[in-house]
Amino acid sequence: MSSLIYSHPSIYQLLMRVIYAGGYAARYRALSELIPDGAEVFEACAGDAYLYQHYLRPRSIQYRAGEFNETFVAHARARGIDMQRFDLRQDPVPQADVVLIHASLYQFMPEHRQIVDRLLAAARQTLIISEPVRNLSSSRWALIRCVARRSADPGSGHKAQRFDEHSLDEFVTSHYAERVRQRLLIPGGRELIYCLEGRAR
Ligand SMILES: C[S@@+](CC[C@H](N)C(=O)[O-])C[C@H]1O[C@@H](n2cnc3c(N)ncnc32)[C@H](O)[C@@H]1O
């Protein structure tokens, strides 16, 4: 059983709008600006595919997505989106010009390095990692911290670990420094984006 936030794409969207408030659109706009027209994109852990539906679809971008949650997959497919049921822990990552993982890498901690290696191996041009670095689950209030940590189970268990700006910088620079092409914080500073040069040719 997944947490309430993952029970339906509309509930997910509503709660994300509440959590991100004014920064909700900024996170998608920042990602969209990093993806060139005409690119072939694979998004891992795509959730409600909001980025594609509202930012990429109107452009000439070939989009495919993989997602663990069957409700999200069915919802996307009913809207004509090429989303497959996919478990990033074990399924092969399809090659694409741009591979994207958005607000999802923390779910694979402490095995996130293997995940990034596999995503990089699939990216012909760029791997975009965008990760929340200011999280309710690291709130100074114990109650908020506890609720947030127990509210993000996609159906594979609660994910207690999160990045902050320092730990994400440290992870990327210690393993992928030579591949970093861009580093930017979204307006408001809630998410940190890294663009890494892909390894697929
Ligand atoms: C916080 S949401 C992010 C969704 C979307 N990328 C966004 O930024 O709005 C995390 C997503 O990762 C998916 N997920 C969790 N574990 C996964 C796995 N092992 N393989 C594929 N997707 C997974 C969840 O079902 C959920 O939709």
Structural write-up:
The protein has 201 residues and is α/β, with parallel strands linked by helices. It has one domain: 3-Layer(aba) Sandwich (Rossmann fold), CATH 3.40.50.150. The protein contains seven helices and seven strands; from the N terminus they run H-H-E-H-E-H-E-E-H-E-H-H-E-E. The chain has a seven-stranded mixed β-sheet, sandwiched between helices. Strand 2, helix 4 and strand 3 form a beta-alpha-beta unit. The longest helix is centred in the first third of the chain and has 12 residues. It binds S-adenosylmethionine (SAM). S-adenosylmethionine (SAM) binds next to strand 2. S-adenosylmethionine binds next to strand 2.
- Structural class by sheet pairing and helices: alpha/beta
Largest sheet: 7 strands, mixed
Radius of gyration: 16 Å
Low-confidence residue ranges: none
Distance between the termini: 39 Å
Overall mean pLDDT: 90
Estimated helix fraction:
25-40%
Global morphology: globular
CATH topology: Rossmann fold
List the strand order in the largest sheet: 3-2-1-4-5-7-6
Order of helices and strands: HHEHEHEEHEHHEE
Number of helices, where a helix is a run of at least 4 consecutive DSSP H or I residues: 7
For the record, the CATH class is Alpha Beta
Number of separate structural domains:
1
Give the strand content.
15-25%
CATH architecture assignment name? 3-Layer(aba) Sandwich
Distinct small molecules: S-adenosylmethionine
Identify the CATH homologous superfamily. Vaccinia Virus protein VP39
Count of distinct strands? 7
